Amino acid sequence: MNWSKMRRKRYILLSLLLLTLGVQGQKANFEQVERFTNMKFGKLVGTLIVSPHFINGSDRFWYSFVTGDGIRYYYVDPERKVKRELFDREVLARKLSSLTGTDVDARKLALRDFVFERGDKVFSFKFGRLVFRYDVRGNRLEEVKQASPKVLSKKPARLFGKYSPDSTYVAYVKRHDLYVMRVKDSVETRMTTDGERYYSYGRNDRDMGVQDTRAEWFGDSKKMYVIREDMRNVEELPLISIWGRRPTVRAYKCALAGDEYVPQYEASVFDVTAGKKVRVKMEKWKDQLLWLSYAGKSSDQLFIQRKKRTREELEICAVDTETGEVRVVIHERSDPYLNDELYSIAYLNDASEILWWSERSGWGNYYLYDSRGNLKNQVTSGEWTSGRIVRIDTVRRMLYFEGHGQVKDGNPYYARLCRADLDGKGDVRILTPEEGNHKMVFSPSGRYFVDSYSRPDQAPVNVVRDCKGKLLFRLEDPDLSDLYREGWREPECFTVKAADEQTDLYGVMWKPMDFDSTRRYPVIAYVYPGPWTEYIPLDFEFSSLSGASQLAQLGFVVVCFGNRGGSPYRGRDYHAFGYGNLRDYPLADNKHGLEQLITRYPFIDGSRVGIYGHSGGGAMSVAAICTYPDFYTAAVASSGNHDNTIFDYGWSEIHHGIKEIRKGDSVSFEFNVPTNLELVKNLKGHLMLVTGDADDTVNPANTLRLASALINAKKDFELVVLPGQKHGFMGPAKEFYHRKMWSHFVRYLLKE
Questions:
Q1: Phi/psi of residue 467, each to 5°?
Q2: How far is residue 497's CA from residue 589's CA, in Å, rounded to a whole number?
Q3: What is the pLDDT of residues 502-539, one digit of tens each?
């Protein structure tokens, strides 16, 4: 198949399509976007980040790295501060050529499955289908004859179920009930009789035979525990499948915001030897959520967490596995809601201590409790966010974690490795101070780590440090020379102020590869409002996942920046900004930020402004063009939750809020949220709506309801339905979506 001819055909077809749309005067660079889209970035660049492979549980490691010079293999001993090539690739290639009778290119030496013998001088590897043993001391290579495949044992294979740690029992589910079989004599015991579809002890709610179970074993193999979900009263949402001789309806369970019936949870403990079920007495709040928090090595140690439906309050409970009674260990409240994205808990030394993350001060910090729930000390503090745990050293009493925002004037989204004393002694120390997003891999002993850090405008830097942050040496740098020769340029980072003129918003700008500062370009904003994350690139990348870099090649300046109410990494006031205002909270910040960029850069044409996004970004794009109809010219909204009354109850109720109503002993909930349907009367610009007809994350009814409202308001718009596509578009449909988006913005923003 001639792929170059196919690309030319696609280019011609797209050009004809745009001409039929009346865009004869546009200056879109279709050839450039085609070339950019089809760039083989991996082949042009090779390796970006070092992936260490530690040798036999030691701190020594090897890694491979590809540059324009081909692939090389390296050996590192951090303790001795040694870094060298693992072997002479030219010598090894000649020896492989001799033994295999083939011409082996040293630059393309694809080796895999390294296994080191004692020490680090002798190792085996696979090359093709053959296995070789290599001694670097004398450059001795020999083929290793592989043993014949073993005859399969006549013992029954472990085809299903969960075996107890001591292999005495296997647990499984039949027709939604829990069973346990004694392995030695295949004696089966039925543990439950109340399982049914949507109230199952199995992981699959379909009516089927034997299947895996939700239940889990304690370490001592005496008991099991399970948290079961009751979905029986949860209503369904339908989807129509067009495939088959007749289209069919597929329905799935989905609790919507404000629903009377939402999933219910219960916890139980099973004593296998006694054949006894003990129900855990976790009942406290109506429609509460339950999760396993920790199960110990002993079957008498179990911790379960429960959370209110209103999501501002949770508790960790210790369970008496004999009686089902519970004791509250830690109670947490954080208004208006708990930060689910960063909330974490770690049990140290088999739950003798509990490390707890909390935003009780307005900023995420770690606190240390004893097993009874008594606060021992605060581990971190300050007006910045203590993020994901990387490593806990219980011997040296050190916590290693990602910190966000401690560096003045630094980007608060970038993760830096920090170290804190678990006992709260001394200040938190930043171990990776460089401005960039750091990714760390610790050695088995915890004495060293590989640090790879980058930014959207800076290629990764790979280094080795000790556990105190001391830089030992730098590893290989990516080779970008071929990429630059192709005309590629990295995006630019910038900051603007939010509409309050106080809060910094961080963003990234993509320009065409043939950018000319004397020209004036339309500007297009790629958006995602949060609040559980912000889709702002933090790492070095060739081609943006959002399609922003490709879109820019047509002749646009494309930008992406945050808004208040977005990232959970910038403190409670920032991420909770949109609470109670789920539709409108990001809009003013986006418009204000774009206005600053228009004023700052003469090459941006403020009379031609576009906006696009997916999911929450799709909803935001519609809200923006309807709220500021004289500012935004064109918008593309894909898979948007335009009506949050028919969206998942968890996300909507958390971030917009749900009102708890008490009348005597009765508790009910009330949910009211503004929708995009209420804004369509204001539309002046050019809007394209896109949805997959099989989307079970944001049901296509969200888009179709909006389309109906637009029709009733006598507004012109485009509607694209992608057959068989779910929330994430795949394959040819994804390519089709991108080309439709390109043509939309070209038609309405690139006119003379």
A1: -70, -10
A2: 8
A3: 999 999 999 999 999 999 999 999 999 988 889 899 99
C-beta neighbour count of 689 within 10 angstroms: 25
Would you say the CATH fold of 491-749 matches that of 339-455? no
Between CA 166 and CA 173, with CA 168 as vertex, the angle to 5 degrees is 110
Q: Are strands 634-638 and 686-692 parallel, antiparallel or unpaired?
A: parallel
The pLDDT of residue 23 is: 39
Q: Amino acid identity of 326? A: V
* Residue 168 one-letter amino acid: T
CA distances, 687 to each of 585, 624, 636, 735 (Å): 21, 11, 6, 19
Quote the DSSP letter at residue 256: B
Tokens matching residue 629: 């109809």
- Scan for tokens 């070789």, then name that residue: 132
Task: Find the helix or strand (DSSP H, E) in which 19 lies.
Answer: helix 3-20
- Among 229, 204, 371, which residue's Cα sits nearest to residue 291? 229
Intervals of the chain under pLDDT 50? 1-6, 8-9, 11-26, 152-158, 752
Question: In terms of Cα–Cα distance, which of 553, 554, 543 is closest to 42?
Answer: 543
Q: Which amino acid is at 638?
A: S
Q: Which long-range contacts (CB under 8 A, 24 or more apart) does 31-36 make?
A: 32/512, 32/513, 32/514, 32/553, 32/554, 33/550, 33/551, 33/553, 33/554, 33/742, 34/7, 34/10, 35/553, 36/488, 36/513, 36/543, 36/549, 36/550, 36/553
In 355-365, which positions are buried (b, 16+ CB within 10 angstroms) versus exposed (e)? bbbbbeeebbb
In 3-state terms, what secondary structure has residue 392? strand
- Amino acid letter at 269? V
Helices 3-20/30-37 angle, 10° precision: 140
What does the alpha-carbon distance between residue 652 and residue 674 come to, in Å, rounded to a whole number? 11
Element of type H or E holding 289: strand 289-295
In this structure, the number of other CB atoms found within 10 A of the CB of residue 48 comes to 22
Long-range interactions of 69-72: CB distance < 8 A, separation 24+: 69/107, 69/479, 70/105, 70/106, 70/107, 70/108, 70/109, 71/107, 71/108, 71/109, 71/110
Q: Residue 119: its pLDDT value, please?
A: 80
Q: Taking the domain 339-455, which CATH number applies?
A: 2.120.10.30
How far apart CA 500 and CA 529 sit, in angstroms, is: 17
Please measure the distance between the N-terminal and C-terminal CA atoms of the chain and give it in whole angstroms: 39
Determine the pLDDT at residue 18. 46
Pair of tokens at residue 490: 């990295």
Dump the DSSP string for 610-668. Answer: EEEEETHHHHHHHHHHHHSTTT--EEEEES----GGGSBHHHHHHHH--EEEEETTEEE
Whole-number pLDDT of residue 470: 97
The neighbour count for residue 157, using CB atoms within 10 Å, is 7
Which pLDDT tens digit goes with each residue over 82-140? 999 999 999 999 999 999 999 999 999 999 999 999 888 899 999 999 999 999 888 89
**Do β-strands 471-474 and 659-663 pair in parallel, antiparallel, or remain unpaired?**
unpaired
Tell me yes or no: is domain 491-749 CATH 3.40.50.1820.
yes
The distance from CA 201 to its chain's CA centroid, rounded to whole angstroms, is 28
SS3 190: strand
Helix (H, G, I), strand (E, B) or coil at 459: strand
HSE of 635, CA atoms in CB hemisphere, 13 A: 30
Tokens for 550?
Answer: 């490709």
Cα three-residue angle 286-330-401, rounded to 5 degrees: 115
Residue with tokens 């077809």, as numbered in its chain: 13
Whether residue 677 contacts residue 709, with contact meaning beta carbons closer than 8 Å, is answered with yes
* Residue-by-residue DSSP string for 355-385: EEEE-TTSS-EEEEEETTS-EEEE---SSSE
Q: Kindly list the domain boundaries of the chain, sorted by start residue.
A: 53-144, 339-455, 491-749
**Residue 83: partners with Cβ closer than 8 Å, 6 or more residues away:** 74, 75, 76, 77, 464, 473, 475
What is the spatial distance between Cα 436 and Cα 430, in angstroms, rounded to a whole number? Answer: 13
Transcribe 478-523 into DSSP letters. P--HHHHHTT----EEEEEE-TTSSSEEEEEEE--TT--TTS-EEE
- The one-letter code for the residue type at 572 is R
For position 122, what pLDDT does the model report? 95
